[in-house]
Amino acid sequence: MYKRTLLAAVIMLNTLPAQAHGPIFSIGPETIYKDGVETHLEYHRANKKDETENELTLGLGYGITQDWTISAALPYASINEDGANNDGIGSLALETTYRLWKHNALGKQDSVSAIARAILDTAKGSDTPALTPGANDFMFGLAYGRESLIWQRWASVRYRFNGKSDAGIERGDQISVDAAIGWRAEIPQYYKSDTLWMVEFNTETTQRSVQNNIPLTNTGGTEFFVSPGVIWSYRNATVKGGIQLPVYHNLNGVQSQSDYRLKLALELIL
Amino acid sequence: MKKVTLISTLMMLAGFNSAHAGEIKHIMQVHGAVCASCAYGLEKKFKKIDGVKTFDINLKEGLVSICTDENLSFDDEQLTQLFIESGYSYKGKKIEPSCDSASSGAVANAVNKMGLNKGEKVTLTGLFNGICDDGKDFYLVVKSEVIEIIPPQGAMPNLAIGTPLTIKGIVVGQSEEGEVVIEASAIDEPSHDNE
Fold it and tell me: Tell me: the pLDDT tens digits for B120-136?
């Protein structure tokens, strides 16, 4: 049960709307242009020793202004845990990104954005393994990015407040610190496809969960991932994919470490 | 009969040419556009305007190029707002009287063909392309290549985008963005009458 609770938290962390040309597994400062609409379809797989979760997420974003984007994403999740299966509608995520600062120069742009996300307890049903921990979670983050014609770099920090689960467990909050670099072999041209290669470095530290004021032994800890990925785009269409590979873990008690996480997304700006 | 055919052909050609003569090209300097998918918002906003026929952007040179009906005009305030709403900065514009492909050299694919070496003394003529953000250098476009120019002390040109300019100087290296950087010893403005 505890394992299930934590896995759900990790999976939802990575459902990220409106990130057309930003990092794949973390947050970026990108916003959509004023009155612009972005839609995406995303496949995400997370694998541990005895646990596999697949999610197919449909997302929609809208640029209220050039510096303020709102978006929503709804996943269909399928979970296999110790041989038991469950699938259905997952947790609805609502997100807003506000660009706090921007500096434009010829062939480059620096920006900083604040991001807030609510992951709502919308998944229904009492089957096991559960599709949701049974709580609303909230995430706040700050993202910096410099994009230029050849090199890109991003950095972000996120704090996720995890709610109290249906089982009365106060799930530990999570802090994520991310950095990413991107590179393309040639300067992009408007009417030609553009390929951007990137590597992300993702650190996730989760506090211990607590039940009846007693910290739970087999919860919380730190994982560090190196995540290679690629973004291919042609004008308003983007395909991006990447894999998170764990290279370091320091998990409390006895827990399965992540084997890998995979993400593939198709995004359209309308 | 041959005479009639010749006249018809000439009339058809005249008609063809007059259709193109009814279009003009607006070339605008943009800062902050770094990828095609990012610049798509600009295309959407320009294409919503009646009379805009085509859109292109040269990301390296930061030049947005649109062909429009010849009676369509934009003022700087309109363009500033349009670029802001797309997430970018508008830096100036010029108008070319034709939309022929031959005149779109300024937005053609940019490949570094200059072959300049560090320490080399050069004399180059190109188009003034705006002042760098730090206010110390300026950009010159030579044969579709953007070059960063360090002007002599107190000699920063105060010109419209697209003004022809000749500089003499020495190649001192390459910028972070891969542009050749030249320290100018002299700046000459051969012509001021294209704006």
Answer: 778 888 888 888 877 88
Predicted model pTM: 0.74
* 3-class DSSP string for A123-185: CCCCCCCCCCCCCCEEEEEEEEEEEECCEEEEEEEEEEECCECCCCEECCCEEEEEEEEEECC
Give just the sign of the alpha carbon dihedral B108, B112, B118, B120.
negative
Q: Hey, is the C-beta of A232 within 8 angstroms of any chain B C-beta?
A: no
Please report, for chain A, the start and end positions of each structural domain, with discontinuous segments joined by +. 2-269
Amino acid identity for residue A66 in this structure = Q
- Count of residues for chain A? 270
Q: Which residue of B has its CA nearest to A235?
A: B37
Q: State the residue for tokens 């997304």.
A: A265
- Closest partner residue to A149 (CB to CB) among B31, B37, B60 is B60
CA angle at A21 for the pair A16 and A26, rounded to the nearest 5°: 40
The per-residue pLDDT for range A9-65, each reduced to its tens digit, is 444 444 554 456 789 999 999 999 999 999 999 999 999 888 899 999 999 999 999
Q: What tokens does B109 get? A: 């694919």
Rounded Cα–Cα distance for residues B51 and A59 (Å):
34
B134–chain A nearest CA distance, Å = 10
The strand ranges marked E within B32-154 are: 52-58, 63-69, 89-96, 121-131, 138-142, 145-150
The Cα–Cα gap between B139 and B128 comes to: 6
CA A139 to chain centre: 11
Amino acid type, A232: W
* Residue in this structure with the two tokens 């300049």, named with its chain if needed: B116
* Nearest-angstrom CA–CA distance, A17 and A64: 15
Q: Which CATH architecture has domain A2-269?
A: Beta Barrel (2.40)
Give every residue of chain A whose pLDDT is below 50, as ranges: 1-14, 17-18
Enter the ipTM: 0.86
Q: Decide if A33 and B44 are in contact by the 8 Å CB cutoff.
A: yes
Q: Give A76-85 pLDDT, tens digit per residue.
A: 999 888 888 8
CA B182, CA A174: separation in Å to the nearest integer? Answer: 50
Burial class (CB in 10 A: 0-12, 13-18, 19+), B14: exposed
Which of the 8 DSSP states describes residue B147? E
